[in-house]
Amino acid sequence: MPIYEYRCKKCQNKFEELVGLGTRVEDMVCPGCGSSSVERAFSVFGVLGSRETEVGESGAYSGASACSGCAATSCATCVR
Length: 80
Description:
InterPro entries: Regulatory_FmdB_Zinc_ribbon. The chain is an all-beta fold.
């Protein structure tokens, strides 16, 4: 079952719910105020990987070793 993020239109509370296959947004209730006026919020996802495959906030590779052609630990022109 996936976990979705929701936002209450009444109190602006953001919360997560583990939802089953047949669950509709209309069935959701805000745990903060009890309102049924909620909407699904846009959420980001995380990815697990090894240290060598991590990507920083800028989107650049941040591997553990430096490039062979320069002294940087992250650059877009690295060939591995």
